[in-house]
Amino acid sequence: MSGSTRQGALPSTSERGTGRPGGLPLQVYVVFAAMAFLVVAQQWLVPRLDSPALATWSTIFVAIVVQSIPFLVGGVLLAGVISILLSERALRRLVPANPTLGVPVAGLAGVALPGCECASVPVASSLMRRGVAPAVALTFLLAAPAVNPVVLVSTAVAFPNRPEIVLARFLASLLTAVAVGWLWLRFAGRVPILHRRSAHDHDQSTTQAFLGSVRHDFIHAAGFLVLGAMIAAAINTFVPRSIIDGVAGNVVLAVVSMALFAFVVALCSEADAFVAASLSAFSDTAKLVFMVVGPAMDVKLASMESGQFGGAFALRFVPLVVGVAVLSAVGMGWWLL
Amino acid sequence: MVAAVKRATQSLLLAVTGAVLLRMAAGDSYLRYVNSWMRWPLLACGAFLVVLALVDVLRQQGSQDDDHEAHVPRAAWLLFAPSLVFFLVAPPALGAHFAERAQSAVVPVDTTTEVDFPPLPEGDPVPIVLDEVLLRAAYDDGATLADRPLELEGFVSRDKAGTWFVTQFGMNCCAADATVMRVAATGVDAPADDQWVRVVGRHVAGTGDGGRGTPEVVVEDLELIEAPKNQYR
């Protein structure tokens, strides 16, 4: 990344050299020419790119991006509503002033946002921008993709006649979100979180401010989403399943590898229950670990969060979440399954 | 060093991404990646991104001042990647290459309760989907399949040992979570990988029982067909 630490400051004014007054910058023409060239060269290129492994990778890559973008757009729209349209007073009434109390409230509020995890990163960021305590916003970020009704119903469908798995998933995910929130409140208050904010134009109408915020948040998050999708598709395509299946027999290895697997394949939280159910070699607890870690943290989310909140934040937050999620899933599995 | 993404280039990014989503959802190509119900969300989303880009271009045109060039991370360049991959590689629906490595679909075998399948419908042969073959084969040595010519459709894939399968992927959310359903075919030579086929065959009793292993059919008739619009189940 660019490595800058004060992105929250004013938007940079240093890099606009090539723009001619009133016209488009040179960059646009260059990009446009490059795309035109590639489209023309397509006839020649396509047969050369014809390898089964590349085709599989690109199918999975495009699939993850195409599946996620509508959810990301939904998320940035909601984030825009929170940052521009929701009044300070209304927000105050919704979120308790005391962060210790706010954390569990945010966890339960996650039930109300039936979306994928990509939606919740911009939403959490806009909550922080509006002055909600970071720990509270982070709890919401972790809870929303994991405990909403759509995810719970799909888990129930994937594990027919096993209500205890649905319950264990709900409790373990909620516990993870609340525990991370409280830990963050207690120990990590001093880790700086970048608040990347949209440029605040002074005399804009509300509509323009709203569209500006949506546009900014989308472009901001989408690049990292694409990066995560590339990695996840590569894992899906190039790592043999036999390696993953080979560790299923060992209790500890199974849990560790399920957590790792959930992190790298970066499935949408509404689908991961079906994949977990198909990993028949693994114990129920290991499957639970897969379903609790996945929505809370994966390569795509880690990439988006480091873009949104900064690398220093991600370096602490990502391992913390994975650790807490594994412990809470194993604990819940031992108790309920 | 990668150049910062100019504001006008950002608009181009949005417009291209939106146009690609519209292009996918307007035809059938989105079915290669996601479920059919995603069509309307994709159309809405594509249109929204294009409008977002247009609004910005129109608004910027009047003003000379570029000071509000929002600073975005250079990772934003990557947003061109899916569009380029879509146009250059034109990724097909998942096929034989992934069938060997994908998770097998779960056959929900519940040994505690007695399951009574209704007999197969009338017909000679009986058209039947692969998931139903897997399910019926898992119980009672496949008693409800016995002595009936089954008509299956799927594409050709094979394992390392050279056995070939009539194959189809099941998909829940997108192609990343695809699980594979397949039935081993014996009695005729395999067509080329990824070729869609319609076979008529009889189930070999006991294969695929209890959801372990793959059911096997002895092929009596084989026909090469066009791939369906939606290749997933």
What does the model show?
The complex is a heterodimer of chains A (337) and B (233). Helices cover 74% and strands 0% of the residues of chain A. Chain A is mainly α and 337 residues long. Chain A starts with 25 loop residues before the first helix and ends with a helix. Chain B has 233 residues and is α/β, with parallel strands linked by helices. Chain B has two domains: 7-91, no CATH class; 98-224, OB fold (Dihydrolipoamide Acetyltransferase, E2P) (Beta Barrel), CATH 2.40.50. In chain B, 28% of the residues lie in helices and 19% in strands. Chain B contains five helices and seven strands, in the order ααααββαβββββ. Chain B has helices at residues 7-26, 39-62, 80-88, 96-99, 130-138; strands at residues 103-104, 126-127, 150-158, 164-170, 179-186, 196-203, 216-224. Chain B has a five-stranded mixed β-barrel with strand order 3-4-5-7-6. In chain B, β4 (164-170) and β5 (179-186) form a beta hairpin. The interface between A and B is large, with 85 and 78 residues.
Gyration radius of chain B (Cα, Å) is 24 Å
The fraction of residues in strands of chain B falls at 15-25%
Helix content of chain A: over 70%
Measured distance between first and last alpha carbons of chain A: 43 Å
Protein name (chain A): Permease
Family (chain A): Belongs to the UPF0718 family.
Subcellular location (chain A): Cell membrane
Transmembrane segments (chain A): 26-45, 57-86, 135-159, 165-187, 218-235, 247-267, 313-336
In brief:
Chain A: Belongs to the UPF0718 family. Chain A: The chain crosses the membrane at residues 26-45, 57-86, 135-159, 165-187, 218-235, 247-267, 313-336. Chain A is mainly alpha-helical.
